[in-house]
Amino acid sequence: xxxxxxxxxxxxxxALLLAALALFAPLPAxxxxxxxxxxxxxxxxxxxxxxxxxxxIELVPAGGGTPIPYxxxxxxxxxxxxxxxxxxxxxxxxxxxxxxxxMHEVTVQANEVATVLVELVEGSGGSLPxxxxxxxxxxxxxxxxxAAGTHPGDPDSFPLADMIPYDSPVLSKDAGWYKGDLHVRSxxxxxxxxxxxxxxxxxxxxxxxIAITDRNTMDACFDPGFQSKKVVLIPAMxxxxxxxxxxxxxxxxxxxxxxxxxxxxxxxxQRVQAQGGIFAIxxxxxxxxxxxxxxxxxxxxEVWCRGFRDIPPVGLGSFVPEYQRRVKDKLVYSISKxxxxxxxxxxxxxxxxxxxxxxxxxxxxxxxGSLSSGPDVPLGRPLTWVYAPEKSVRGIVHGLRxxxxxxxxxxxxxxxxxxxxxxxxxDQYIVDRQAKLTVGHQDVGIGGVVPLGMAVDLLVQVxxxxxxxxxxxxxxxxxxxQKIETNKVDVYRITDTPSAYSVYRARVVGTPGKKGxxxxxxxxxxxxxxxxxxxxxxxxxxNPLDIWIKLDExxxxxxxxxxxxxxxxxxxxxxxxxxxxxPVNEQPFNVPPNAEVKTLNPQGL
Length: 605
Description:
Blueprint: E1 39-47, E2 55-61, E3 68-72, E4 76-81, E5 84-94, E6 97-108, E7 113-120, H1 142-148, E8 176-184, H2 195-204, E9 209-212, E10 232-234, E11 236-241, E12 245-250, H3 262-274, E13 278-281, E14 300-305, E15 326-327, E16 330-331, H4 334-339, H5 346-359, E17 365-369, E18 383-388, H6 393-401, E19 405-408, E20 415-422, E21 429-431, E22 437-439, E23 443-444, E24 449-451, E25 456-463, E26 469-474, E27 477-483, E28 490-496, E29 502-510, E30 521-526, E31 529-532, E32 535-537, E33 548-551, E34 562-568, E35 571-577, E36 597-600
Parallel strand pairs: 1-7, 8-9, 9-10, 13-14, 14-17, 24-31, 33-36
Antiparallel strand pairs: 1-4, 2-3, 2-5, 5-6, 8-18, 11-12, 12-13, 15-16, 18-19, 19-30, 20-23, 20-25, 21-22, 21-32, 25-28, 26-27, 26-29, 29-30, 29-31, 34-35
């Protein structure tokens, strides 16, 4: 039996762009729509300095039922409510995410006002944000979890959590590239096939994994047909609406409810990631469901859905006014810039969106899916290749999280091997911005990082692509284009010296052979290799732990002043001096006699 076979049924759920908050409909300040409430509720949330804190409240009937939402505009609300017994869940917005800060039992009586007053201590001092008091990043304060009896150190355990238990059997222990379809539908979400029929079709197609992504439901995961000894079945869903855009969520441990606010969207994204799952933007430039949710920290973007040139482009007029905003006659948002190129296909626009966001610092991997809803649409055309440590749910999700992906037109389509090699020094140790000392490698693969200011060899090997062209792109623009002469492994190389943050990727393209949208037909493309501010350190000693690393106190590395790594009595130690973050082992920066010290002053992006 393969992957997820949960024991309980899942319930179906009905920032980068903070300026877009005003675009979306506010939460209602009334009870059940269409009824005549006979009572009301007043809620006010402040900190200990008596400052009102914006947020939201959800009233859940004591016997269970659909939450009744209210918006805490300016930290307070006075709204109508039907009489009854409720549990009030009070959330405060900590910049871009909602944090559950309190729970209250409340009784609403006819013709009376029920009052809930919350005074928040956490986050009032200003030195630590509110989210710092949520150790497991599940959007609930530790204090609230302890009071509710949930685990403050487990992101799967929090009030109102709707668990999705599953296992992850290992079908192969070998690390390597695995191919699969990350966007398919069953009868539970608009498809024509049963789960068993869909799984059988995936096995016949020779895929290594599939994700059944039914819209706003994970019922497929609890279907008796959700099992295979050949194909990894990733618990997944298509989350969202056509009006605001759709995400693909892979491997969540609790059911993600629908939201109608960009901050709540970001909260769902963070909670999924805290649980080890993946939050991806689905076909962001499809005219039927353009992406209008913002979000700063997504894991992936679906750059290819259905045929690359089959879907017409989205027009700028399909977006709400905020996304059409210009400053000095230039569009502000990446999705809008992509939508302004009306001569490309929706998938080509999605690639532009990915490029624009990548250059601004987003490290999201590319994925592809067939959106097959029946046998008339083949599985794995296009598909996603993932480099995973093993063939299992956790292995595939791990590869996605590290950005080790590439996409191709079909299982037998072009396959690309893309690596980078910092030419000098050949043997090096690298300190990243988090001040971790790690052994460097000569070759960096997809998802990896090379340093700035050094000559870097970019190496592409292509197979199954005779007659097509291979390109290496820097920040979305080709810096190498070569014709591919054979179907065997051909090797192409270019040397570049990045002086600023750069994003490299490779792709295989061809001349369109049929009618479609856009002048270029993409056959395969890789995830990115990044050039950024890591510091190579030349080390003459065999053991890099002989080197102590001190970060200059004026550096822009937040929360850490100095750190060192050493080996002592056969054990490895990390020593950190100062900073509000919790160090691995907080001790003074005491350097052993005659030890070599490297002082660094890393700068922010």
